[in-house]
Amino acid sequence: MATLSALFDPQLLQRYDVPGPRYTSYPTAPQFTPGFGESELRQVAAASNGDPIPRPISLYLHIPFCTSPCFYCGCNRIITRDASRGAAYLTRLYREIAMASSMFDRDRDVEQVHFGGGTPNFLTPDQITEVVDVLRRQFHFAADAKLDCSIELDPRFITPGEIGQLASAGFNRASLGVQDFDPVVQQAVNRVQGVEQTLGIIDACRQHGFRSVNVDLIYGLPKQTLEGFSRTLDITLQARPDRLAIYGYAHMPQLFRPQQRINAEELPSAETKLDLLRLAIDKLGQAGYEYIGMDHFALPDDELARAQREGGLHRNFMGYTTHAESDLVGLGVSAISHIGASFSQNPRDITSWEQAIDDGRLPVWRGMRLDEDDVIRADVIQSLMCHGELDFEALGRRHVIDFHDYFRDAIERLTPLQDDGLVEVDGRGLHATSRGRLLLRIIAMCFDRYLPPAADATATPRYSRTV
Prior knowledge:
By secondary structure, the chain is an alpha/beta fold.
């Protein structure tokens, strides 16, 4: 790819800026139902143990607590300054870990661990270390050289010295929330965060041998300007993180109560929001970052970039990952599991999750078994979201289908995208053009049988907009 700026066409982006799934799964979470419960989860876990080649395991742990609300946030979190709530949460989490681990054979290596939130470093480094120790006792971990152990960090509530404790516990990847360094924007979203404070944590991660550091930024926040966001990008790029996630702010106050604290009149106009995105694309391209997909960028020697070039990139509820062949086991409030051809989710409210644990039950709230069509379409959408292309013949062989016949309707829905130069389709396959790379969600939506015929704000209010 010559330059990232070649991806940008403001007229097209504006036209296709409609609500749509982010495709961290297919089918997406709104399709999960209460008909999938604990017994169904145990069945699919037992079946997964019977695979001829044992599949590795990825563990996701949700730590829901935050000490203060960030007004833009749409995550599942609990606001509290009571540190004792963390200890009480861990008591039940350890019981869930024990129940979950008992479902899997010991010849299945854990190759990935991720702590998300909320704010995982609401817990003390000693508590986090204890959680990892519990996981190591309950599951069989791969050798350290193969293990990815990552954690989302709020730089405001951790010190460089504590990063050393996390490294000793086995963490080798970190993702830091920044969003914007502009003090005016920080005040507007209730997240005041110092530059030196943040850069000090990035430096500490490197000094303690972390393999990768990711930084999250958001464009489209209240009071953002091109000048201010340009400074944020410059500061961030000087730190040279291995990966960057540049998210578009999704203002959905009807779904996320904290966003009701944001004055909608202070949000950038649609034109300015696109200018902020263009600015980010230009600066990252000039700095040598490669576009991975969706909102993610990486340096050329980062594992994500290498996996994309080599065809091994995967997308799941943790975002882009290199662990394509693993079963994902979610632990904690709202966590989602992807085991075999199934999805399951824990309760989003802590009371229901606690009650299930206290009753000695795996806390499964909802889920689904994928039928044959779901599996085929999930494969298609995974290929699009990770690599921006489809090989019709290879997909047909994998699923014993005639791709053109099976997806006749989807190929017809691609016609206007072809006319707009977003995709190129021939008898052998499909690939997203430079102009279409920022609209992979739109391309994938053509293959989603659960979406209504017209994906507009009225039909799909539960999804964020695609730009």
